What we know:
It is built from five helices and no strands. It is mainly alpha-helical. The protein has a single domain (4-66), classed as 434 Repressor (Amino-terminal Domain). α1 (4-15) crosses α3. The longest helix is centred in the N-terminal third of the chain and has 12 residues, at 4-15. This is HTH cro/C1-type domain-containing protein.
Amino acid sequence: MRDFGTFCVLVRRLGGLRQEDLATLTGLGQSFLSMLESGVRRLTSIDKIIMMLDGLDVPIELTGPMLRTPAHPTPPHGEPSEPLGHPPL
């Protein structure tokens, strides 16, 4: 995948989401997402990248430990992470 604009379009299409829905999930503005998808803006801020990934509950296995916030700490080395929203039994 080349950029986050393409990523946004794919997520929205696969999830049946509007830009407003994606904005609510990620905390990014709808107008920003529109510009991102059209290529007018690029997502270069690490904070905004983390907002997007956290808002979409992207698993740590796909992002790596560098892109985690304190709300989603990385598990100790060697332990698998739990799916978000699913506490252990």
